[in-house]
Amino acid sequence: MKEVAKQAAQILLEIEAVCLSPQVPFTWASGLKAPIYTDNRLIMSFPDQRRVIEGMLGQLIKDHYPQVTMIAGTATAGIPHAAFVASDLNLPMTYVRSSAKDHGKGRAIEGKLRPEDQVVVVEDLISTGRSVLNAAKQVQAEGAKVLGVVSIFNYQLPSGQLAFDQAGIPFHSLTDYTTLLQVAADQADLASHLSSLEAWHQDPQAWSQAHS
C-alpha cells in the first residue's frame, strides 16, 4: 500500500489536483489559511491518470469491503469517482445529497437504495469527515448498512479521525498528507518548505493565525 499511496500522491501533484503553496497560503471555505488546496474534480479531465486512480479505489474497496453490494457517492465531489468505480466493479450506484430536496419526493438519496444493501461511501477527500459521515447517516437512515468509507486523499487531521471513531465507521484512503510530503520532498521547489508544511499539519489553527 505504501507504493500505491506514493503513486497516488505523485499523480495528484502532477495534475495539480493537490497544490502546495506555503509562501502564498490558500483560504479554505472555513476561513482557515492553509498551504495546501485539494481539488480532486480535476482527475476527471485526465483519462490516463483517472484510470489509475479509479482502479486503485476499486481495489481498495475489494480489499477491505468484499461484501459490498452498492457504491454511494457524496454530492458533489464524490459522485464522479463513485460512478467510475461502480462501473469498474459492475455494481449499482447511488449518490447522497448534502440535504434532502425541498421539492418533488424530497429525497436526500438519488438512485435505488435497498434496506439489504451493504454500502461503501466514496468521497474525494477527508478533512473533518463531517460531510461524508452525514452522507453515511443518510444511508443508514434508509435501513442499509454502511460498511465503510473510501477516499482519494486524507488530510489526517485529528478532528477527522475522532469523528470516524465516534461514528464507528471505518475508512481507508488511497493517499494522505504524510505521504504527500514524502513525495514533495523530492521536488526542489518544495523541499525547502517542508518544515512549514509539517508545522501546518501539527497545528492548522496556529499556522493559519501566523499567516493571516
TrEMBL record:
Every Phosphoribosyltransferase domain range: 52-153
Domain of life: Bacteria
Keyword Glycosyltransferase: yes
Cofactor(s) recorded in Swiss-Prot or TrEMBL: Mg(2+)
Binding site for 5-phospho-alpha-D-ribose 1-diphosphate: 97, 101, 103, 123-131
Binding site for orotate: 127
NCBIfam families found in the cross-reference section: pyrE
Designated name of the protein: Orotate phosphoribosyltransferase
